[in-house]
Design goal:
The protein has 13 helices and no strands. About 70% of the residues lie in helices and about 0% in strands. The chain has about 400 residues and is mostly helical. The protein has helices at about 30-50, 65-140, 145-155, 165-185, 205-220, 240-255, 260, 265-285, 305-330, 340-355, 355-365, 370-395, 400-404. It is globular.
Length: about 400
């Protein structure tokens, strides 16, 4: 397959998909589109949690929800959460070596702290306090703003609460990569800066990786259940094996140009594997008590069959869907219209800003009495449109645009 070179889609694209490669000028537009779809999915999933889906979020509305819709939302949410963020870590890893090769350790780290650290600070210092203050007002807080701020600052325990945990974890990975490069470069084992056209690993090797991710996940969850975080960094060990493995896979994929050289014949079995494990999800969900409206906490970890089954399922589904989705976008979505280009340019800002849109919107519509499932169907498209509109307008501010 002909080797393609790519360059940054926009000056302010986040490191997640900063589509930069060596000398050429052809963009991997499908990665821009993939990032936009993934972040839009995150907005929809967080809106779903407001209206009854499983998951952690700042606000959940009380109300009637039907069992069928709850099960469907649990299935879709479980599948999405099993691979979406791991996919972003793989793509982030894919473009990390190029940035380091071009800038060297010092400039690379400065750039990562600017492009990941500053949005993290913006969220933690500005956006999150606003969201929390609005929630406390909704719950009847009557004190002064200064009193609230003092109490809030005294209670802060996390530096990366909310969606910016991804920025924190990616920043740590980038620092680790820089240290590894410094050590190996000094030892005379520097990786060639641009090896192209290597054959991707075989499917049995990839399957072994998927099994390894699942097994490592189960072992970690013996002592760190899903939803347990290490503060103040807000890191969740329960998903660390997947994120670390896929970030490293992205690093290796860059050197071999695997994203472009993965053949249709090699992808085909992974479509069937993805379908098989998607069909297994309802079995796991029923076993975990989804039909009762309350999931069995054993699925979150510990020495039990449900935790083992879910960990192995998660390892295979994240690898299979990552391969299938990347191939699908590469073949069908490697172009952009005007709307897609605008959404792609602003989706990183949407990721950072969406809580400050979803939470006030949900509070404002809280007085409308509707079945929660129906309300989600009505509110989710509105939330997506508002998130992109707010992000577009806020990025018109020069200083904000430079970090979002």
């Amino acid at each position: 397959m002909t080797t393609h070179a790519i360059e940054t889609a926009t000056p302010n694209s986040p490191p997640v998909v900063a589509t930069t490669r060596s000398a050429g000028r052809t963009r991997l537009v499908y990665l821009d589109n993939l990032r936009m779809v993934v972040i839009t999915t995150v907005v929809v999933m967080h809106t779903a949690i407001v209206y009854g889906a499983e998951g952690a979020w700042y606000y959940r509305e009380a109300g009637e929800k039907d069992t069928l819709t709850y099960v469907i939302m649990a299935l879709l949410g479980g599948i999405g959460s099993a691979f979406v963020m791991g996919l972003l870590f793989l793509v982030a890893g894919y473009f990390t070596p190029r940035a380091y090769d071009r800038k060297g350790a010092g400039r690379f780290l400065i750039d990562r702290f600017k492009r990941l650290g500053l949005p993290l600070v913006l969220y933690t210092v500005v956006i999150l306090p606003i969201v929390k203050y609005l929630l406390d007002l909704h719950q009847g807080y009557q004190g002064s703003l200064s009193q609230w701020l003092i109490a809030y600052m005294q209670g802060v325990s996390s530096l990366a609460d909310g969606p910016v945990w991804f920025l924190m974890e990616l920043l740590i990975f980038c620092v680790g990569y820089a240290l590894w490069r410094l050590i190996t470069d000094r030892a005379g084992k520097r990786t060639p800066p641009d090896r192209m056209g290597e054959t991707p690993p075989g499917n049995w090797t990839i399957a072994a990786m998927a099994f390894g991710i699942g097994l490592a996940t189960f072992i970690v969850r013996l002592w760190a259940l899903v939803g347990v975080y290490v503060e103040p960094w807000h890191l969740e060990p329960a998903h660390a094996p997947q994120y670390i493995a896929l970030f490293i896979a992205g690093l290796m994929a860059y050197r071999g140009n695997w994203l472009e050289s993965f053949s249709a014949a090699q992808v085909r079995p992974w479509r069937w594997i993805a379908l098989l494990f998607i069909l297994l999800m309802p079995v796991l969900a029923v076993a975990a008590g989804a039909t009762t409206g309350q999931l069995d906490p054993q699925g979150a970890g510990g020495l039990n069959w449900l935790a083992l089954a879910y960990s192995l399922w998660e390892g295979f589904i994240c690898v299979a869907l990552t391969i299938v989705v990347l191939d699908w976008f590469r073949r069908h979505f490697n172009q952009q219209g005007r709307l897609a280009k605008v959404m792609s340019d602003n989706c990183f800002a949407v990721y950072i800003l969406h809580p400050i849109v979803i939470v006030p919107l949900a509070l404002a519509l809280g007085g409308i009495a509707l079945n929660l499932s129906l309300k989600f169907v009505l509110v989710a498209p509105l939330a997506v449109v508002m998130c992109y509109l707010v992000a577009y307008l806020i990025r018109k501010i020069p200083f904000v645009r430079s970090i979002l």
